[in-house]
Amino acid sequence: MTLKKSSILGIQNLVIQFTLRGRILTAIRGISLDLYKGESLAIVGESGSGKSVLMKSIMGLLDKNGRIKQGQIIYNAQDLGKFTTEQEWLGIRGKEIAMVTQDPMTSLNPLKTIGKQIEECVVMHQGLRGKEAYAETLKLLTDVGITDVQKRYKQYPHEFSGGMRQRIVIAIAIACKPNILICDEPTTALDVTIQAQILQLLKNLQQKYGLTIVYITHDLGVVAKVADRIAVMYAGDVIEVGETHEIFFHSKHPYTWALISSLPQLGSKGEQLYSIKGTPPNLFQEIKGDAFAPRNPYALKIDFIERPPFFQVSDTHYVRTWLLDPLAPKVEPPAALQAFFAEGRQYAND
Amino acid sequence: MLQYIGKRLLQSVLTLFIIITIVFSLLRLMPEEGYLGAAADKMSPAQQEIYLTSLGLRDPILVQLGNFYKNLLQGDLGKSVTYRTDVPVVTIIADKITYSLLFGLGAVGLSLLIGVPLGIMMAYRKGRWLDRLGTGYIVFVVAVPAAVYYLVIQMYITELFQLPMLFDEYRPITWILPLTSMALAPTASYAMWMRRYMVDELNKDYIKLARAKGVKERTLMFKHVLRNAFIPMAQYLPATILFTITGSIYIESLYSIPGMGGLLVDAIQRQDNTIVQGLVLVFSSLGIIGLILGDIAMALVDPRIKLGKGGGVR
Predict the structure, then answer these.
(1) Coil/strand/helix, residue A74
(2) Per-residue model confidence as pLDDT tens digits over A133-170
């Protein structure tokens, strides 16, 4: 992939395997992906596609039975994939790469005041002590949109609502002054009105602190609001990556088509919502060819034999499907989707 | 907080009152020979009648109950008839409880000192050799009847370490075996609960967030996990401590310790109603105090528990 912007984190040919009761599960199957400084990258895909595993591996938080089989995660000229000791990871976790977790209701320690939980980070990563740390904590609370901060500092998590708690989780993440912020389904546990507020907050903080944000989500609605680029994952592999409008309105991979067709907004009233037939492949077995082929109505013979390479569509848009091979028959996306594409492109041109 | 404690105390006094009244009434239904003790054979029916009247047993039951409570408030639990004739029950219990208290506290102290850190280390090094060793120990203590390993201790350990078997107040070395025997089971249970609660906490989401923000594993264990795991422990600790104090019948008879453990069984067999009453009072008070202390301890460590108007509701 071209480096138009400067890459802050580079994943190269990453393979991650888990050992489960003597059997080997390959969760990540050779991913290469660059993260550019200051961008918002959304990683989308269904459950079990490996989104979370990928992000956990970046922070060294894989479960004990998981390991990086091959490939590299390059950050700051270091290969994070080679890290083994806690000491090495402590230099990265929080300090360089921080995380906003999924469920704010359970992500905070119920027995510590939220002030102390944020301050722990401030002390650890900014080296402030005493009054300075306290002042910084209050500033962070203000930054994430909490009022009456002195009183709130002394309160416990159970005294906050879900949206407020997510703000505090975000405050903890940015208290570490990280370069990269990983948001693992940041809005899934929140109700819709709060979702928009939290996404706006993240956007504001991104500008203020110069963060690079990775959103992990399966909610395309969220993606559309916040992402600059999208990487679509299927069965442990990135199958299409491009700028947001490219994925939404120019996508080339049948799986991405299916994903977008599944948006409830695209269905018409009275009709059944679209769903992708079949189930994702069994990751315990070695996958031959294109992982999506068995569920793919456009599958070619070669899809079952050889794994497709990345085909470049534009400077920023790459797709892993044999359909883009010069020898492949020309295939158009489903009619409903074509209408959506046309509408979207027109809207973008306006 | 004070209001909460006051309320709980008041409730407890009421509970205690009900328990004692029930026990008192039940004991009045028992045969009257118990009050005569060994002297029963030597007395004529008329003499027996006079003696029982002098004890106040011919009064209406409510009057008896009233008298009992009046004396109780003055710290008088009546006199033993059979056990040590004419010695106040309070003195008898006080004599015995000293031994049980010493052994009980010693054993609890020992098992807390070993069991809690053991549980912590087992959780910290889950799945490693220490955890397996500890689990083996816990399973052994729970699965094998206490009598078996007590006997093993008596048969082999005494010889192996040349330790005296029977308890002698004035030889400190004789304290070792009873104390360790008594501490074996509580050590296992403290270790088991501590490990279990720690592992529970370790699997929670806030631990993941704490790891992600860069907290060291060791700091995580001691600053985040330990305190949270201690909450469920805090509730039950006082009660288990107090129950250990009431003495172990088996251990005390095994090492001939003149403690309280055997007293209740003895007193019931001899039908010494005044001692039974007194002991029930002591046992139930200890149990109730244990529960109150547990609740207070839990309220102190867990900020989620709000006290006062809403009651102690989580």
Answers:
(1) strand
(2) 999 999 999 999 998 999 999 999 999 988 899 999 99
The answer to the question of residue B163 being in a domain is yes
Containing structural domain, residue B228: 93-263
Determine the Cα–Cα distance for residues A236 and A307; give it in Å rounded to an integer.
13
The domain that holds B107 is classified in CATH as: 1.10.3720.10
Which residues of B are less than 8 Å from A169 in CB distance?
209
3-class SS letters over B198-232: HHHHHCCHHHHHHHHCCCCHHHHHHHHHHHHHHHH
CB contact under 8 A, B206 and A108: yes
- Least CA distance to B208: which residue of chain A? A107
Within chain A, what is the greatest distance between any pair of CA atoms?
68
- Name the closest residue on chain A to residue B229, using Cα atoms: A111
In order of their start, the domains of chain A are: 94-227 (3.40.50.300), 239-349 (no CATH)
Q: Which residue type is seen at A294? A: P
**Both structure tokens of A8:** 């802050």
The Cα–Cα gap between B34 and B268 comes to 9
Q: Is residue B12 part of a domain?
A: no
- Considering the domain boundaries, does residue B313 fall inside one? no
The tally of domains found in chain B comes to 1
- The model carries a pTM of 0.79
pLDDT for the residue A171? 92
- Do the Cβ atoms of B211 and A93 come within 8 Å? yes
Rounded to two decimals, the ipTM of the complex is: 0.79
DSSP conformational letter for B153: I
